[in-house]
TrEMBL record, chain A:
Pathway named in the protein's UniProt entry: Cofactor biosynthesis; molybdopterin biosynthesis
Pfam families: MoaE
Record-stated family: Belongs to the MoaE family.
EC numbers, comma separated: 2.8.1.12
GO MF assignments: molybdopterin synthase activity
Residue ranges of the TM segments: none
Lineage: superkingdom: Bacteria
Subunit-level organization: Heterotetramer of 2 MoaD subunits and 2 MoaE subunits. Also stable as homodimer. The enzyme changes between these two forms during catalysis.
Protein name: Molybdopterin synthase catalytic subunit
Function: Converts molybdopterin precursor Z into molybdopterin. This requires the incorporation of two sulfur atoms into precursor Z to generate a dithiolene group. The sulfur is provided by MoaD.
PANTHER family with a match to the protein in the record: MOLYBDOPTERIN SYNTHASE RELATED
Top class in the EC scheme: transferase
TrEMBL record, chain B:
InterPro entries the record matches: Beta-grasp_dom_sf, Mopterin_synth/thiamin_S_b, ThiS/MoaD-like
Identification of the protein by name: Molybdopterin converting factor subunit 1
Organism per entry: Rhizobium meliloti
Taxonomic placement: Bacteria, Pseudomonadati, Pseudomonadota, Alphaproteobacteria, Hyphomicrobiales
Pfam families referenced in this protein's UniProt entry, alphabetically: ThiS (PF02597)
Gene3D superfamilies: 3.10.20.30
Length: 155, 86
C-alpha cells in the first residue's frame, strides 16, 4: 500500500494536534512523528502582516510531488503538508509538515527535505505589510534556501 | 500564430498591472526565452519587468520549466519571481 500523502492549500488555520492524530489514526506501526510548523514573525515589531499569494492548482501539485518524493526516498509511512494563503499576522501559522516513520531519523529527514523543496519550488510568494503603514515589498528569495535544497543531492 | 494564456504572480503581476491575459504569439516565439523577449516589446511596464529576464521563473501547464523550453502546445504559461513560501 502506498503511504498516504495529504496536501492542502487553504486560507484557514490548521490544528497541529488534529493533523498528527489524523495521520496516525488506526495504525500501530508508526514509531516516530515529526512536525514542523512555520509561523509569521513580526521582525522586531516592524511587520504588521504577511500576504501570501499562490498559484492555485500548481501549488497543490508541487507540494504533492515533493511529499511523494520524500515518502519514497526516506521510506515514510505517511506525510501531511498544509500551506496557508492570504493575510497572516505575526504569530499566525503559515505552513505545517508532518512525517511518520518506524524510526526517528527518516521522519526528521523527510520533514526537512519537504520544507527545503517546498520553499524553493512550491509557487508561493510573500509580501510584507509594515507596522508603520508604509508600503511593504515582496520578500526576496534567499540563496541560503537554494543551498539548503541543494544539499539533498540526487542519489 | 498561436494563442496562449499567460498568468502572472507577485511583483510580475503587480508591475504589469493584470493577473492574466491571452496573447497571440508570432511564429518566431518558440521558447520561454523568446516569449520573454517578445513581451519586452509590449510597452514600458513589460520592458521594466522583463529587463532582467534571468530572474524570471516560468511554468508551462503548471510545471516548472527552464527558459530554453519550447512552448508549443502550451495552454497556460505562468511567469513569476523566485518563490518565497514556507
Amino acid at each position: 500500500m502506498a503511504a498516504p500523502v495529504t496536501v492542502r492549500v487553504q486560507r484557514d488555520d490548521f490544528d497541529i494536534a488534529a493533523e498528527v492524530s489524523a495521520l496516525c489514526r488506526a495504525r500501530t506501526d508508526v514509531g516516530a512523528v515529526v512536525t514542523f510548523s512555520g509561523l509569521c514573525r513580526d521582525e522586531a515589531g516592524a511587520l504588521s502582516a504577511l500576504e501570501l499569494e499562490h498559484y492555485p492548482g500548481m501549488a497543490e501539485a508541487e507540494i504533492e510531488r515533493i511529499c511523494h518524493e520524500a515518502v519514497e526516498r526516506f521510506g515514510l509511512q505517511a506525510a501531511t503538508a498544509i500551506h496557508r494563503f492570504g493575510r497572516m499576522e505575526p504569530g499566525a501559522n503559515i505552513v505545517l509538515v508532518v512525517t511518520a516513520s518506524p524510526h526517528r531519523q527518516a521522519a526528521f529527514d523527510g520533514a526537512n527535505f519537504i520544507m527545503d523543496f517546498l520553499k524553493t519550488s512550491a509557487p508561493f510568494w510573500k509580501k510584507e505589510h509594515h507596522a508603520d503603514g508604509s508600503a511593504g515589498d515582496w520578500v526576496s528569495a534567499k540563496d541560503a534556501d537554494d543551498a539548503a535544497r541543494d544539499r539533498w543531492t540526487r542519489r | 500564430m498561436s494563442t496562449v494564456n499567460l498568468v502572472y504572480f507577485s511583483w510580475v503581476r503587480e508591475r504589469i498591472g493584470r493577473p492574466e491575459e491571452t496573447l497571440d504569439l508570432p511564429e518566431n516565439v518558440v521558447t520561454i526565452a523568446d516569449l520573454l523577449g517578445h513581451l519586452k516589446t509590449r510597452g514600458e511596464e513589460y520592458a521594466a519587468v522583463f529587463e532582467h529576464a534571468n530572474v524570471i521563473r516560468a511554468a508551462i501547464n503548471q510545471e516548472h520549466v527552464e527558459h530554453g523550453e519550447p512552448i508549443a502546445g502550451a495552454r497556460e504559461i505562468a511567469l513569476f519571481p523566485p518563490m518565497t513560501g514556507g
